[in-house]
Structures are given as C-alpha cells and as structure tokens.
UniProtKB/TrEMBL annotation:
Its main location: membrane. It comes from Homalodisca liturata. PROSITE patterns: EGF_CA. This is EGF-like calcium-binding domain-containing protein. One of its GO terms (cellular component) is plasma membrane. Keywords: Disulfide bond, EGF-like domain, Endocytosis, Glycoprotein, Membrane, Receptor, Repeat, Signal, Transmembrane, Transmembrane helix. The lineage of its organism: Eukaryota, Metazoa, Ecdysozoa, Arthropoda, Hexapoda.
Length: 254
C-alpha cells in the first residue's frame, strides 16, 4: 500500500489531488494507492508480477521468451511451419515459403486424416484416421517410421497438451479419450449420448482446459460448445445450443 499526496492543484472549486501513473486515488481522495495491473488480466500473455506503480511480465515455460514489448511471450525456435494434408502426404511449408517438404507419405491410396496436431518441441506430428481406426505419430528424425494406436473405432478430432504431454482425441464421435505422447497409456475422459456428435476439439494447456463442440440430433439438429478441465470435470456450456452446425474451433491460448 502506498500513501502519498501528489500533484496538489488549485482548481476553482478547491484543491484536488492526482496520482502518478500506476497509482490511483484512494477512498479519501487525498492519498494514492498502487494499481494492481495484474488483476486486470490484460497486460501479460503469461505471468504477471505487480510492483509499486508498475508491473513486470515473465514467461511460464522455458520454451518461451519475452518479446521486445516486455509483455508477450513467444515460443523459441525456428520459423513457424504450416502443416497440412494433401493426397497421400502430410507436408509442411514455412511461413515465408523459404522451405517446404514432406513429413509423412502413406503407402495407401485412400489416405484420410480426420484429426491433425503438431508437437513443436519434438518436431512430431500426430494424426487420426477414422478409415483405418488408427492414431499415428511420426517425427522428423525417424525417417518416415510411425508409432500407432490401432483398433480404435472411428477416431476423430485430436488435440495435444504440450505441457503434460498428453494427447486428447474423440472416438466413435461421442467419447473423449486421452493418451500420453508415447501412445502407450490411455483413459476415457468423458462419454456422451450417441445422439451427441463431437465435431471439434481444442485444448488450452496453459489454463488446463479443453473445449469441444457438439451437434445433437434430438429432433432438429443443434450445436453447442462445452468446456471442462483436462480431467473432464467441471463441465459447463460455453455457447448455448444454436441451429447452425459448428464445424471446428481453435483457441488463442495466450
């Protein structure tokens, strides 16, 4: 708590006090107290530390670094890559188009991907195929070899939690599951009625939340967006049912 009388002025209605930047007048209109910028939640993209009259920001994870504006954290590493699927291949291209290549090529002509995400730390990609019933992983240093979870029933959308290194995915359109990044240990997170189809899935690793959209077929088709923590508890509706179909969703986790 800071108590000081600053910048005394003599307006027509009598003296009034004002505070330096980073402080605000207290209830007595004579003393100044610190403004907690961190409580506003609008300045730092990750950690915020309040200081007398100001604040500082820092990054939560070692893979991030503070930018020149001293408020935004950005992932370390090389230039951003865009990963996409075309024909039998999963390809990448850098944001400046200076580099492009093939990360994986399927031996099958009917290669179909229903979910795709990237582990930027390990330079690995994960994808699901409801046609083959597999979730697969391949890394740039493995020369096109893959690790696979097989014998799944219609695996769909998937999303990665790069903090705890867990993979979340949809099976049979109405079951939410999680596996570790090594694709060895899996568990059911939540199960919904078969009439509720999960059409999209996204994970916020920093806030430990996941979001998904559901299309229902009780009479007329409706869609909604739900949220839960990464264990599947504290489930709540974010967007009430609407008549339109929600095809996909993404998060700005910063």
């Amino acid at each position: 708590h800071v108590s000081m009388q600053l910048e005394g002025r003599q307006p027509p209605l009598g003296p009034r006090c004002a505070c330096y930047p980073g402080y605000q007048l207290s209830g007595d209109s004579r003393t100044c107290q610190d403004v907690d910028e961190c409580a506003l939640g609008i300045f730092c993209s990750q950690y915020c530390h309040n200081t007398p009259g100001s604040f500082t920001c820092s990054c939560r994870y070692p893979d991030f670094q503070l930018q020149d504006n001293r408020m935004t954290c950005k992932a370390k590493g090389s230039e951003m890559q865009i990963v996409y699927v075309i024909d039998k291949q999963i390809r990448y291209v850098t944001n400046s188009h200076s580099s492009l290549g093939v990360m994986y090529e399927s031996p099958f002509l009917n290669f179909q991907v229903s979910g795709l995400d990237v582990d930027a730390r390990k330079k690995c990609i994960y994808w699901s195929s409801d046609l083959t019933g597999n979730i697969s992983r391949t890394c740039l240093n493995t020369k096109n070899t893959t690790d696979t979870i097989s014998k799944l029933v219609r695996p769909g959308k998937l999303a990665l939690d790069w903090v705890t290194r867990n993979l979340y995915f949809v099976e049979r359109n109405y079951i939410l599951k999680a596996c570790n990044f090594e694709l060895q240990r899996c568990a059911i997170i939540a199960t919904f009625p078969p009439a509720e189809t999960i059409s999209s899935l996204a994970v916020d690793p920093i806030r430990r939340l996941m979001f998904w959209s559901i299309s229902t077929s009780y009479g007329e088709t409706k869609s909604m967006i739900k949220r839960a923590d990464l264990s599947g508890s504290q489930m709540t509706v974010v967007l009430e049912p609407i008549l339109q179909h929600i095809a996909d969703l993404v998060l700005d986790s910063l």
